[in-house]
Automatic annotation (TrEMBL):
Transmembrane parts of this sequence: 143-169, 181-201, 248-270, 282-300, 312-330, 350-373
Keyword Cytoplasm (UniProt): no
Transmembrane helix among keywords: yes
Lineage: Bacteria, Bacillati, Actinomycetota, Actinomycetes, Kitasatosporales
Keywords: Membrane, Transmembrane, Transmembrane helix
Name this protein carries in UniProt: Peptidase M50
Superkingdom of the source species: Bacteria
Length: 375
Protein backbone atom coordinates (compact mmCIF):
# COMPACT_ATOMS: atom_id res chain seq x y z
CA UNK A 1 0.00 0.00 0.00
CA UNK A 2 1.18 3.51 -0.73
CA UNK A 3 2.26 5.66 2.19
CA UNK A 4 2.68 8.88 0.26
CA UNK A 5 1.95 12.09 2.04
CA UNK A 6 -1.03 14.38 1.54
CA UNK A 7 -1.30 16.21 -1.75
CA UNK A 8 -2.84 19.51 -2.69
CA UNK A 9 -3.51 22.50 -0.44
CA UNK A 10 -3.94 22.09 3.30
CA UNK A 11 -7.58 23.14 3.08
CA UNK A 12 -8.32 20.66 0.32
CA UNK A 13 -6.49 17.91 2.20
CA UNK A 14 -8.48 18.66 5.36
CA UNK A 15 -11.73 18.60 3.40
CA UNK A 16 -10.82 15.32 1.78
CA UNK A 17 -9.99 13.76 5.14
CA UNK A 18 -13.44 14.80 6.41
CA UNK A 19 -15.18 12.89 3.61
CA UNK A 20 -17.47 10.12 4.93
CA UNK A 21 -17.81 7.45 2.24
CA UNK A 22 -20.52 4.81 2.52
CA UNK A 23 -21.13 1.59 0.66
CA UNK A 24 -24.17 1.14 -1.51
CA UNK A 25 -26.98 -0.79 0.23
CA UNK A 26 -26.74 -4.44 -0.71
CA UNK A 27 -22.94 -4.67 -0.76
CA UNK A 28 -21.92 -7.83 1.12
CA UNK A 29 -18.55 -8.65 2.71
CA UNK A 30 -17.44 -12.13 3.73
CA UNK A 31 -15.22 -13.11 6.60
CA UNK A 32 -11.56 -14.06 6.06
CA UNK A 33 -11.02 -17.05 3.78
CA UNK A 34 -7.92 -18.98 2.79
CA UNK A 35 -7.15 -18.79 -0.93
CA UNK A 36 -3.93 -20.68 -1.60
CA UNK A 37 -1.29 -19.12 0.64
CA UNK A 38 -3.22 -15.86 0.92
CA UNK A 39 -6.15 -14.70 3.04
CA UNK A 40 -8.93 -12.95 1.14
CA UNK A 41 -12.42 -11.55 1.66
CA UNK A 42 -15.24 -11.80 -0.86
CA UNK A 43 -17.15 -8.66 -1.83
CA UNK A 44 -20.45 -8.77 -3.70
CA UNK A 45 -22.86 -6.15 -4.99
CA UNK A 46 -26.25 -7.87 -4.83
CA UNK A 47 -27.74 -5.25 -7.11
CA UNK A 48 -25.54 -6.06 -10.09
CA UNK A 49 -24.30 -9.49 -9.06
CA UNK A 50 -20.66 -8.42 -9.44
CA UNK A 51 -18.26 -10.03 -6.97
CA UNK A 52 -14.50 -10.03 -6.41
CA UNK A 53 -11.80 -10.73 -3.83
CA UNK A 54 -9.83 -8.26 -1.71
CA UNK A 55 -7.02 -8.65 0.79
CA UNK A 56 -7.33 -8.14 4.57
CA UNK A 57 -6.07 -4.54 4.47
CA UNK A 58 -8.51 -3.50 1.75
CA UNK A 59 -11.32 -5.28 3.61
CA UNK A 60 -10.37 -3.43 6.82
CA UNK A 61 -10.91 -0.12 5.04
CA UNK A 62 -14.00 -1.09 3.02
CA UNK A 63 -15.79 -2.58 6.03
CA UNK A 64 -15.52 0.78 7.86
CA UNK A 65 -17.05 2.82 5.05
CA UNK A 66 -20.44 3.17 6.72
CA UNK A 67 -21.18 6.81 5.90
CA UNK A 68 -20.51 7.75 9.54
CA UNK A 69 -16.74 7.49 9.83
CA UNK A 70 -14.57 10.05 8.05
CA UNK A 71 -11.49 9.09 6.07
CA UNK A 72 -9.42 10.60 8.86
CA UNK A 73 -11.11 8.35 11.44
CA UNK A 74 -10.76 5.25 9.27
CA UNK A 75 -7.13 6.18 8.67
CA UNK A 76 -6.49 6.40 12.43
CA UNK A 77 -7.99 2.93 12.93
CA UNK A 78 -5.89 1.59 10.08
CA UNK A 79 -2.72 3.12 11.52
CA UNK A 80 -3.50 1.59 14.89
CA UNK A 81 -4.01 -1.85 13.30
CA UNK A 82 -1.18 -1.91 10.76
CA UNK A 83 1.22 0.79 11.98
CA UNK A 84 1.10 2.76 8.72
CA UNK A 85 -0.72 5.87 7.61
CA UNK A 86 -2.33 6.21 4.21
CA UNK A 87 -1.77 9.23 2.04
CA UNK A 88 -4.38 11.01 -0.06
CA UNK A 89 -3.10 9.31 -3.21
CA UNK A 90 -3.97 5.90 -1.81
CA UNK A 91 -7.40 7.05 -0.64
CA UNK A 92 -8.19 8.52 -4.04
CA UNK A 93 -7.09 5.31 -5.76
CA UNK A 94 -9.22 3.13 -3.46
CA UNK A 95 -12.32 5.34 -3.71
CA UNK A 96 -11.97 5.56 -7.48
CA UNK A 97 -11.77 1.77 -7.73
CA UNK A 98 -14.83 1.27 -5.49
CA UNK A 99 -16.74 3.94 -7.39
CA UNK A 100 -15.87 2.36 -10.73
CA UNK A 101 -17.28 -0.93 -9.43
CA UNK A 102 -20.47 0.85 -8.35
CA UNK A 103 -19.99 -0.03 -4.67
CA UNK A 104 -20.13 3.46 -3.15
CA UNK A 105 -23.37 5.20 -2.29
CA UNK A 106 -24.09 7.80 -4.94
CA UNK A 107 -21.86 6.20 -7.58
CA UNK A 108 -23.49 5.02 -10.81
CA UNK A 109 -24.43 1.37 -10.52
CA UNK A 110 -22.24 -0.83 -12.66
CA UNK A 111 -24.31 -3.50 -14.41
CA UNK A 112 -23.09 -7.06 -14.44
CA UNK A 113 -21.68 -8.29 -17.74
CA UNK A 114 -24.44 -9.64 -19.93
CA UNK A 115 -24.32 -13.42 -19.94
CA UNK A 116 -26.48 -15.06 -22.58
CA UNK A 117 -28.75 -17.75 -21.11
CA UNK A 118 -27.58 -21.29 -21.64
CA UNK A 119 -29.41 -22.87 -24.57
CA UNK A 120 -32.26 -25.14 -23.53
CA UNK A 121 -32.52 -28.33 -25.53
CA UNK A 122 -34.28 -31.63 -25.15
CA UNK A 123 -31.08 -33.19 -23.79
CA UNK A 124 -30.01 -30.49 -21.32
CA UNK A 125 -31.24 -27.24 -19.85
CA UNK A 126 -32.83 -25.50 -16.88
CA UNK A 127 -36.35 -24.29 -16.22
CA UNK A 128 -37.28 -21.94 -13.34
CA UNK A 129 -40.44 -23.19 -11.62
CA UNK A 130 -41.52 -20.08 -9.67
CA UNK A 131 -41.52 -16.38 -10.52
CA UNK A 132 -40.23 -15.28 -7.10
CA UNK A 133 -38.11 -17.99 -5.50
CA UNK A 134 -37.32 -15.89 -2.44
CA UNK A 135 -41.01 -15.25 -1.69
CA UNK A 136 -41.78 -18.95 -2.16
CA UNK A 137 -39.03 -19.89 0.27
CA UNK A 138 -40.27 -17.29 2.75
CA UNK A 139 -43.73 -18.89 2.70
CA UNK A 140 -42.23 -22.33 3.26
CA UNK A 141 -40.19 -20.94 6.15
CA UNK A 142 -43.29 -19.49 7.79
CA UNK A 143 -44.88 -22.95 7.74
CA UNK A 144 -41.88 -25.15 8.59
CA UNK A 145 -39.50 -22.74 10.31
CA UNK A 146 -40.51 -24.03 13.75
CA UNK A 147 -38.60 -27.23 12.94
CA UNK A 148 -35.38 -25.20 13.06
CA UNK A 149 -35.84 -24.27 16.71
CA UNK A 150 -33.73 -26.28 19.21
CA UNK A 151 -36.76 -27.92 20.87
CA UNK A 152 -37.70 -29.48 17.52
CA UNK A 153 -34.26 -29.97 15.98
CA UNK A 154 -32.69 -31.94 18.84
CA UNK A 155 -35.41 -34.66 19.07
CA UNK A 156 -35.46 -35.02 15.28
CA UNK A 157 -31.69 -35.48 15.15
CA UNK A 158 -31.92 -38.10 17.91
CA UNK A 159 -34.55 -39.97 15.88
CA UNK A 160 -32.34 -39.79 12.78
CA UNK A 161 -29.37 -41.24 14.66
CA UNK A 162 -31.57 -44.06 15.99
CA UNK A 163 -32.91 -44.75 12.49
CA UNK A 164 -29.43 -44.93 10.99
CA UNK A 165 -28.31 -47.25 13.79
CA UNK A 166 -31.16 -49.56 12.76
CA UNK A 167 -30.18 -49.31 9.11
CA UNK A 168 -26.60 -50.29 9.94
CA UNK A 169 -27.72 -53.12 12.23
CA UNK A 170 -29.99 -54.54 9.51
CA UNK A 171 -27.78 -53.61 6.55
CA UNK A 172 -27.44 -57.23 5.39
CA UNK A 173 -31.22 -57.69 5.26
CA UNK A 174 -31.66 -54.32 3.54
CA UNK A 175 -29.05 -55.17 0.90
CA UNK A 176 -30.96 -58.33 -0.01
CA UNK A 177 -34.12 -56.23 -0.29
CA UNK A 178 -32.34 -53.85 -2.69
CA UNK A 179 -31.28 -56.79 -4.84
CA UNK A 180 -34.83 -58.12 -4.93
CA UNK A 181 -36.17 -54.66 -5.72
CA UNK A 182 -34.35 -54.67 -9.06
CA UNK A 183 -36.30 -57.76 -10.09
CA UNK A 184 -39.67 -55.98 -9.61
CA UNK A 185 -40.09 -53.14 -12.16
CA UNK A 186 -43.28 -51.78 -10.56
CA UNK A 187 -41.83 -51.44 -7.07
CA UNK A 188 -38.53 -50.19 -8.51
CA UNK A 189 -40.39 -47.38 -10.30
CA UNK A 190 -42.24 -46.44 -7.11
CA UNK A 191 -39.04 -46.32 -5.05
CA UNK A 192 -37.31 -44.27 -7.77
CA UNK A 193 -40.15 -41.72 -7.64
CA UNK A 194 -39.90 -41.50 -3.84
CA UNK A 195 -36.14 -40.94 -4.05
CA UNK A 196 -36.71 -38.19 -6.63
CA UNK A 197 -39.20 -36.51 -4.29
CA UNK A 198 -36.58 -36.76 -1.54
CA UNK A 199 -34.09 -35.01 -3.84
CA UNK A 200 -36.58 -32.21 -4.51
CA UNK A 201 -37.17 -31.72 -0.78
CA UNK A 202 -33.38 -31.76 -0.31
CA UNK A 203 -33.07 -28.67 -2.50
CA UNK A 204 -35.97 -26.85 -0.87
CA UNK A 205 -34.44 -27.55 2.56
CA UNK A 206 -31.30 -25.67 1.53
CA UNK A 207 -33.43 -22.66 0.67
CA UNK A 208 -35.58 -22.74 3.82
CA UNK A 209 -32.57 -23.01 6.16
CA UNK A 210 -30.73 -20.26 4.28
CA UNK A 211 -33.85 -18.08 4.59
CA UNK A 212 -33.90 -18.82 8.34
CA UNK A 213 -30.44 -17.27 8.61
CA UNK A 214 -31.14 -14.27 6.40
CA UNK A 215 -30.19 -15.75 3.05
CA UNK A 216 -31.82 -14.96 -0.26
CA UNK A 217 -32.96 -17.66 -2.69
CA UNK A 218 -32.47 -16.52 -6.26
CA UNK A 219 -34.01 -19.40 -8.20
CA UNK A 220 -35.87 -22.69 -7.80
CA UNK A 221 -36.24 -24.85 -10.86
CA UNK A 222 -35.58 -28.02 -12.78
CA UNK A 223 -32.25 -28.97 -14.35
CA UNK A 224 -31.98 -31.86 -16.74
CA UNK A 225 -29.05 -33.68 -18.27
CA UNK A 226 -30.99 -36.56 -19.73
CA UNK A 227 -31.69 -39.12 -18.48
CA UNK A 228 -31.28 -37.28 -15.13
CA UNK A 229 -33.83 -34.61 -14.14
CA UNK A 230 -33.35 -32.90 -10.75
CA UNK A 231 -34.56 -29.84 -8.89
CA UNK A 232 -32.16 -27.08 -7.90
CA UNK A 233 -32.30 -24.20 -5.43
CA UNK A 234 -29.80 -21.35 -5.74
CA UNK A 235 -28.94 -19.45 -2.54
CA UNK A 236 -27.69 -16.12 -3.85
CA UNK A 237 -25.67 -14.96 -0.83
CA UNK A 238 -24.54 -18.24 0.75
CA UNK A 239 -20.87 -17.16 1.36
CA UNK A 240 -22.10 -14.03 3.17
CA UNK A 241 -24.47 -15.61 5.69
CA UNK A 242 -23.50 -14.36 9.14
CA UNK A 243 -21.12 -16.84 10.70
CA UNK A 244 -19.80 -20.29 9.97
CA UNK A 245 -22.62 -22.15 11.77
CA UNK A 246 -25.44 -20.83 9.51
CA UNK A 247 -23.45 -21.73 6.40
CA UNK A 248 -22.73 -25.27 7.64
CA UNK A 249 -26.39 -25.68 8.64
CA UNK A 250 -27.51 -24.54 5.19
CA UNK A 251 -25.12 -26.94 3.45
CA UNK A 252 -26.11 -29.88 5.68
CA UNK A 253 -29.86 -29.19 5.45
CA UNK A 254 -30.31 -31.19 2.25
CA UNK A 255 -28.86 -34.43 3.62
CA UNK A 256 -30.80 -34.01 6.86
CA UNK A 257 -33.98 -33.55 4.82
CA UNK A 258 -33.25 -36.78 2.91
CA UNK A 259 -33.11 -38.63 6.23
CA UNK A 260 -36.20 -36.90 7.64
CA UNK A 261 -38.08 -38.05 4.55
CA UNK A 262 -37.29 -41.65 5.56
CA UNK A 263 -38.57 -41.37 9.15
CA UNK A 264 -42.26 -42.21 8.47
CA UNK A 265 -41.22 -45.14 6.27
CA UNK A 266 -38.96 -46.37 9.05
CA UNK A 267 -41.92 -46.22 11.46
CA UNK A 268 -44.01 -48.28 9.01
CA UNK A 269 -41.16 -50.75 8.58
CA UNK A 270 -40.89 -51.22 12.35
CA UNK A 271 -44.50 -51.07 13.49
CA UNK A 272 -46.99 -51.69 10.69
CA UNK A 273 -48.22 -55.17 9.62
CA UNK A 274 -46.93 -55.14 6.02
CA UNK A 275 -47.05 -57.79 3.34
CA UNK A 276 -43.69 -59.20 2.24
CA UNK A 277 -43.43 -57.16 -0.98
CA UNK A 278 -44.16 -53.85 0.75
CA UNK A 279 -41.81 -54.69 3.61
CA UNK A 280 -39.00 -55.43 1.17
CA UNK A 281 -39.69 -52.26 -0.83
CA UNK A 282 -39.52 -50.08 2.30
CA UNK A 283 -36.39 -51.94 3.39
CA UNK A 284 -34.76 -51.04 0.07
CA UNK A 285 -35.96 -47.44 0.36
CA UNK A 286 -34.38 -47.08 3.81
CA UNK A 287 -30.99 -48.26 2.58
CA UNK A 288 -31.02 -46.41 -0.75
CA UNK A 289 -32.31 -43.21 0.88
CA UNK A 290 -29.61 -43.37 3.54
CA UNK A 291 -26.93 -43.89 0.92
CA UNK A 292 -28.36 -40.96 -1.05
CA UNK A 293 -28.16 -38.70 2.01
CA UNK A 294 -24.63 -39.64 3.04
CA UNK A 295 -23.34 -39.53 -0.54
CA UNK A 296 -24.18 -35.81 -0.52
CA UNK A 297 -21.82 -35.37 2.45
CA UNK A 298 -18.74 -36.70 0.65
CA UNK A 299 -16.28 -33.75 0.72
CA UNK A 300 -15.77 -33.48 -3.04
CA UNK A 301 -17.02 -30.63 -5.26
CA UNK A 302 -19.81 -29.88 -6.01
CA UNK A 303 -21.40 -31.92 -3.19
CA UNK A 304 -22.74 -30.45 0.04
CA UNK A 305 -19.97 -32.17 1.99
CA UNK A 306 -17.44 -30.07 0.09
CA UNK A 307 -19.19 -26.88 1.20
CA UNK A 308 -19.10 -28.10 4.79
CA UNK A 309 -15.40 -28.97 4.50
CA UNK A 310 -14.71 -25.53 3.02
CA UNK A 311 -16.44 -23.87 5.96
CA UNK A 312 -14.55 -25.98 8.49
CA UNK A 313 -11.28 -25.07 6.75
CA UNK A 314 -12.30 -21.43 6.30
CA UNK A 315 -11.29 -21.52 2.64
CA UNK A 316 -12.51 -20.65 -0.81
CA UNK A 317 -11.48 -22.91 -3.69
CA UNK A 318 -10.45 -25.53 -1.14
CA UNK A 319 -9.91 -28.44 -3.55
CA UNK A 320 -7.80 -26.41 -5.99
CA UNK A 321 -5.75 -24.82 -3.19
CA UNK A 322 -5.18 -28.22 -1.57
CA UNK A 323 -4.00 -29.71 -4.86
CA UNK A 324 -1.60 -26.82 -5.47
CA UNK A 325 -0.17 -27.03 -1.95
CA UNK A 326 0.27 -30.81 -2.03
CA UNK A 327 2.10 -30.65 -5.37
CA UNK A 328 4.54 -28.16 -3.87
CA UNK A 329 4.91 -30.15 -0.65
CA UNK A 330 5.52 -33.46 -2.45
CA UNK A 331 8.22 -31.82 -4.59
CA UNK A 332 9.68 -30.32 -1.40
CA UNK A 333 9.44 -26.93 -3.02
CA UNK A 334 10.48 -23.96 -0.83
CA UNK A 335 7.18 -22.34 -1.81
CA UNK A 336 5.30 -24.84 0.36
CA UNK A 337 7.03 -23.40 3.44
CA UNK A 338 5.65 -19.93 2.62
CA UNK A 339 2.08 -21.11 3.31
CA UNK A 340 0.90 -19.95 6.74
CA UNK A 341 0.53 -22.64 9.39
CA UNK A 342 -3.28 -22.37 9.29
CA UNK A 343 -3.30 -23.03 5.54
CA UNK A 344 -0.94 -26.01 5.84
CA UNK A 345 -3.14 -27.58 8.53
CA UNK A 346 -6.34 -26.92 6.56
CA UNK A 347 -5.07 -28.35 3.26
CA UNK A 348 -3.45 -31.40 4.83
CA UNK A 349 -6.53 -32.02 6.96
CA UNK A 350 -8.85 -31.76 3.96
CA UNK A 351 -6.70 -34.14 1.90
CA UNK A 352 -6.47 -36.70 4.72
CA UNK A 353 -10.17 -36.44 5.58
CA UNK A 354 -11.21 -36.88 1.95
CA UNK A 355 -9.00 -39.94 1.52
CA UNK A 356 -10.41 -41.51 4.71
CA UNK A 357 -14.01 -40.87 3.58
CA UNK A 358 -13.37 -42.36 0.15
CA UNK A 359 -11.59 -45.39 1.62
CA UNK A 360 -14.52 -45.95 3.99
CA UNK A 361 -16.97 -45.65 1.08
CA UNK A 362 -15.03 -48.15 -1.04
CA UNK A 363 -14.79 -50.53 1.92
CA UNK A 364 -18.55 -50.28 2.50
CA UNK A 365 -19.27 -51.00 -1.18
CA UNK A 366 -16.87 -53.95 -1.16
CA UNK A 367 -18.48 -55.35 1.99
CA UNK A 368 -21.92 -54.95 0.43
CA UNK A 369 -20.89 -56.72 -2.78
CA UNK A 370 -19.30 -59.53 -0.77
CA UNK A 371 -22.47 -59.97 1.26
CA UNK A 372 -24.64 -60.12 -1.86
CA UNK A 373 -22.36 -62.70 -3.47
CA UNK A 374 -22.22 -64.91 -0.41
CA UNK A 375 -25.74 -64.50 1.00
Amino acid sequence: MSTSGATGTPGAAAGFAAHRPGLRPGVLLSGPLLDGAATVHLVKDTGSGNSFKVGPKEHFLIARMDGERSLAEIGEEYAGEYGRRLGDAHWRQLLAALGAKGLLAGAPERPAPAVPPAPRTLLRGTLPLVADADATTARLHRVFGFLLTPWATVPLLVLLVAMEALVIAHSGELLIAVRELFTNPVLLTGIAILLWVSTALHELAHGVVARHYGGRVAEIGLRWRLPAVIMYCTVDNYPYLGGRRPRIATAAAGAVMNLLFLLPFCALWLLAPLDDATHEAISALLLLGSVQAFAMLVPLPPLDGYRIASELAGATGLAASTGAYLRLALRRSPEAATYPRRARIAYRGYALGTVLVLVAAVAAVAAGVHHLLTA
